Amino acid sequence: MWAVIGCSVLVAAIVVVVLIVISASGSSTDAGATGNVEIFGGIPQKGIELGDPKAPVTVSEFAEPQCPHCKDYTLDEMPGLIEKYVQSGDARMELHLLTFIGSDSLPGAQAAYAASLQDRMWQFMDVFYARQGIENSGYVDQSFLDGVAEAAGVDVDQMNADMSSQEVAGKIADAKSAAEDAGVNGTPTFLVGPTGGDLETVSQEDLSSAIDEQLAASK
């Protein structure tokens, strides 16, 4: 089980403790925000994966839909990494969504994984973060999710049909299991390594240098 402080996740033996932190990301959602969805154009995408599946380096991210730090990374730092490494075919990315912050987290993750069945998860989460509101304020309602999906180019009706599917539930369970196996203790957390090999946790600040090191080792 998870113990949570803001966007931190700690493995707990018995109880789940959630301390809700009202982020400084804004007091309300920006209904017209579209994030950086244009950066995904032309990049291979399948499920939770972004980029050439044969890229020599893999970057695996663990995030939470309501985490303000995940929002900041996605909107401010990730575009540069995608342009430098993913568009070039040097790296591929994976996105694993956790749901520990509270009541608005689960429907956000369900919708994102439903979008992944259409290979539009990355666009969905980019717009979601651009419109992120106050944690657990109830903002992640059907209208919010439908609006995010429309802006991300997701088939809304299909997404809504898939949200409660066993396939989506399995993806959420898989992400939690993967986080436990990797010893994830906060979001966003990043693992970097050779594609098909062992990945190691790196700090957000060291992401670029870690990718560079792996690229050098792959040659």
With strands numbered from the N-terminus, the spatial order across the biggest sheet is: 4-5-7-6-8-9
Number of domains: 1
CATH superfamily, by name, is Glutaredoxin
Q: Report the structural category.
A: alpha+beta
Biggest sheet architecture: 6 strands, mixed
Describe this structure in words.
With 219 residues, the protein is of the alpha+beta class. It contains seven helices and nine strands. The strands form two sheets. It has a six-stranded mixed sheet. Helix 2 crosses helix 5, helix 2 packs across helix 6 and helix 3 crosses helix 4. The radius of gyration is 16 Å and the shape is globular.
Give the topology:
Elements: E1 2-5, E2 8-11, E3 18-19, E4 45-46, E5 49-50, E6 57-63, H1 68-86, E7 91-97, H2 105-116, H3 121-130, H4 142-151, H5 156-162, H6 166-182, E8 189-194, E9 200-202, H7 207-217
Parallel strand pairs: 1-3, 6-7
Antiparallel strand pairs: 1-2, 4-5, 5-7, 6-8, 8-9
Helix pairs in contact: 2-3, 2-5, 2-6, 3-4
